[in-house]
Amino acid sequence: MNLEQLRNHPAFPFVNFEKNDLEFLLLEMFWIELFRSCFSEQKQIDQWHPLYPAERDASPILIMANDTLNRAVRVHLRINEDNSPLYSAPATVVGDNGFLPFDLWLNDIFESSGQRIYSGLVLSTEMSAQALIFTEKAMTLFCHDLVPEEKIQEIIDKYYAILEERGYYWR
Questions:
Q1: Residue 138 burial class via C-beta count within 10 angstroms: exposed 0-12, middle 13-18, buried 19 and up
Q2: What is residue 85's predicted lDDT score, i.e. its pLDDT?
């Protein structure tokens, strides 16, 4: 199945993945296809490989690494388990932020032996359309466009500055 077919699947966004094997498989496929969509050529995709399998709780749902570039991307599925209201600007009270659908940061990612350390981008996202757009853009910048880490960190800092300006208390 391609990305469009997965998005059009009646079970999308696969919310029952923890209990339903088929939905978990479809969720895994979705994330692989979303990752693939960040590249323009097959030979670019071929340089990336899964570092770990997806976890059943979707944390992580995808970890891809590139040994040549020494980069890796890790995606955690963010779930609003307690049905908190979605973050909306501005928050009125410290701690009254609501659920933030997308987050990202740089962090080393280790292979299972611990011997290889990748420069990593970690994405924590829900399955909403807007969060997936942000996720795809971030993966493209880091994995395809090979934007330097310093520039990625500037983007992350700007994201947090915007959140802070809008009253999101993340510290």
A1: buried
A2: 62
